[in-house]
Amino acid sequence: MPSPKKSSVRIAIIGTGGMAANHAKRFKEVPGCTLVAAVDVSRERVEKFAADHGIPATFLSLDELLKGAEFDAVSIVTPDPFHAAQSIQCLKAGKHVLCEKPLALNHSDASKMVAAAQKAGVINMVNLSYRDWPAIQAVAKVIAAGRIGEIRHVEANYLQSWLPSKIWGDWRTTPAWLWRLSTKHGSRGVLGDVGVHIVDFATFPAGPVKNVYCKLKTFDKAPGNIVGEYTLDANDSAVMTVEFANGALGTIHTTRWSGGHANRLFLKISGTKGSIEIDSERSTTSYKFCAGHDLDKAQWITIDTKPTPNNYARFIKSIRTGKQDQPDFARGAEVQKVLDACITSDAKGRPINV
Ligand SMILES: NC(=O)c1ccc[n+]([C@@H]2O[C@H](COP(=O)([O-])OP(=O)(O)OC[C@H]3O[C@@H](n4cnc5c(N)ncnc54)[C@H](O)[C@@H]3O)[C@@H](O)[C@H]2O)c1
């Protein structure tokens, strides 16, 4: 495995739209990490992005980048349909890869990415970004330590409101929102966009899904459900009933229609000895806990957590140490398998084993 010195990890960012600014900011916070190149199919966007973030080289394609720059790792921040091919191309070139979520459009492509990463023997991570929250890292440890006993019940939701509102601008005129509404543009709807996060958020502490029964819905949004080149046919809401491998039951749901909630993740896990809860609208650095004597009074305490490193810092640390951290591509593929089962379940109208 290529092993750059601690002082220098050179990153190229591929895709310079909305989320890429976050990648640039976070990588610049990691000592010794340098942004050396940026790539976008839009010359205007890539040049502005490079100027904004002090990046010396720009390219209009991944091929040009691989021929024209020296770097150790890539951060792939292009729309979902490009993740698989671009990751595999970079892995074949021996580059470490941090890829945006969802890892791919389906489990078959995600599995090819896992195989390519294993063959390349480099660091691979998928940016399931809510792993950055100290509360979820702490909750996973509390559950693994058995402090709520055997898990019986899980409630999880991810609520956004950009369809009935202009909270993040007008989706009708914004390509970054319109491609998310169109299957032709590679979107798997709210399920693929943020359902991927809430499935990871719930199953990271609660364990794998055994089977899922899912209903997806696409609501009317525009005359003929067409805006310019975009056919608005990707799902807006997803509701899942889940049985976990450990026998627990749960519900996981997500929508873009939840006025009043800009971007809320909620998770409650209940076991034989107690319950634990994260509500991002309350805090992402503390969680609520009810166990022991508090169970008889239904009384909750709030527990503050210690800071934890974000995915970007952990990706760089993995490159330096050669020790693969989570969430890796295999984890991204596991979550993808649940999403595929949701789509099959919705189409067939019955539960599907994962
Ligand atoms: N982890 C998170 O919380 C999070 C949050 C937002 C977005 N994302 C993910 O990040 C990715 C990008 O989302 P966004 O909101 O920044 O989208 P965006 O539409 O704002 O930006 C995408 C950029 O990629 C460029 N692009 C398109 N095809 C390309 C190609 N073949 N090669 C190079 N550049 C190309 C576009 O020109 C655009 O500048 C998506 O996969 C999305 O799911 C993740």
Automatic annotation (TrEMBL):
This is Gfo/Idh/MocA family oxidoreductase. It comes from the Bacteria. GO terms for molecular function: nucleotide binding; oxidoreductase activity. The keyword Acetylation does not apply. InterPro entries: Gfo/Idh/MocA-like_OxRdtase_N, Gfo/Idh/MocA_oxidrdct_glycsds, GFO_IDH_MocA-like_dom, NAD(P)-bd_dom_sf. Residues 9-127 form the Gfo/Idh/MocA-like oxidoreductase N-terminal domain. Keywords: Oxidoreductase. Residues 136-277 form the GFO/IDH/MocA-like oxidoreductase domain.
